Amino acid sequence: MDTTNQDRSGWETQEQVDACLADNDVSPEQNTRWRRDGLLSDVEQVPSAYYGSAVFYPAGTCAQIAAAARLFREKNRINYVGRMLWWEGFPVDERYWKPDLISLAGWADRVCGWIAPLMDREGDNQRTLPERLSDAGHSDIILSRVRPRLEGNELASVLRVALDTASGCFTRFEEPERDSKGRERSFDETAIVRGLDLAASGTHSIFGHRLRLKEEIEGALKAAARAIRTTSFSDVATGREEIIFAARNDVRNALRMELALYEACEWVYGRQAFGLRLVAWIAKKRPTTMIGIMILGFAQLRRASNQLLSSEEIAALADTAEAAQRDSQQLQSLWKSDKRFRHIFAPKRIRAAFRDRPSYDRWIREVGLAASYTAPEG
Question: 65 CB contacts (<8 Å, ≥6 apart)?
């Protein structure tokens, strides 16, 4: 096939790649080795009738080289770099992600299959499986964040809901009871809200709008249980790669959005801002097992429900959140460094400004006046 006249306007040239290698302190030998190891895509060498040949690189090669160099500085392990390049959306050899994902899916299917029989085995005089797990003191990277926030039987309640969801059996929280103030509260819901640090999602607001994460928990758990009943994790992991790639992008963009929102709001609303502290921590830490389960689970949800936002909408929301984060960082910088804005950009003043539209309009006028103020000389 004659490839000499193909349009390669989107491809990258040897000159561009050479400049990128120099900018990122990567030698041509390293570049060749990374390509041989499957961390970079293959190049295309096009013969010329008069000038020998030209090398063309797939679009995005320079960005991928820069990302690989950054990741090797984080951890000089090829498997880590390959896995993280894939997580960031770059094309790499499947050995860096697919075998681990298939193995994780098989493990998750086995664990989910064991749960229901173990839960059903409890007799009237025996402690339940969630109670025994709670007393065992076992912990992991997520449970270590949840356990300290819970009191009494709350951990056993959270574990029971989690196990019911994982087995595909969850249908609803336990019936609510009236608390000392006459409010109806489900013990399950109260424990989960406390454990996941979601309470502020129902109190913090902008123009009266709240994230209301705690109100969505029961529906989200029901959808997850239904997806687990419908499709196994292994079916997803061994299925069409484009479905896995789309789920990976959705999870990455969702975490990107939530981390940006948290970092935009944390200095104004405090560490519990909008109930996003735990998910922001997950987005930063990126625990390998949890991220894998989230990718498989999101692909399951796509099959079982048509109520999810589209991938394009999730990506757009993430971009918007990151733009808000940049704006927020500028306000914080001015609050700290410019006396004109010391009062106007104080966290308490910003919270008051976003209470409603009239308050916001007054605040914007004050910002304009402060920006136009010039201190007298001398």
Answer: 17, 20, 21, 24, 26, 31, 34, 40
**360 and 296: one domain?**
no
Q: Exposed/middle/buried for 130, CB within 10 Å: 0-12, 13-18, 19+?
A: buried
Structure confidence by residue, pLDDT tens digits, 261-315: 999 999 999 999 999 999 999 999 999 999 999 999 999 999 888 888 999 999 9
Q: How many CB atoms lie within 10 A of CB 277?
A: 19
What DSSP designation does 258 have? H
Q: Does the predicted model carry a pTM greater than 0.85?
A: yes
Judge if 159 and 248 occupy the same domain.
Answer: yes
Sign of the alpha-carbon dihedral angle for 298, 300, 302, 308 = negative
The two structure tokens encoding residue 286 = 């990126």
* 127 & 182 share domain: yes
User: What is the biggest distance separating any 2 CA atoms in the chain, rounded to whole angstroms?
Assistant: 88
- Whether residues 251 and 312 fall in one domain: yes
Q: What CA–CA distance (Å, rounded) separates 57 from 112?
A: 44
Element (H, E) at 44: strand 44-48
Average pLDDT over residues 337-357: 94
**Domain around 342:** 338-372
Distant-in-sequence, close-in-space partners of 299: CB < 8 Å, separation ≥ 6: 236, 239, 243, 244, 246, 247
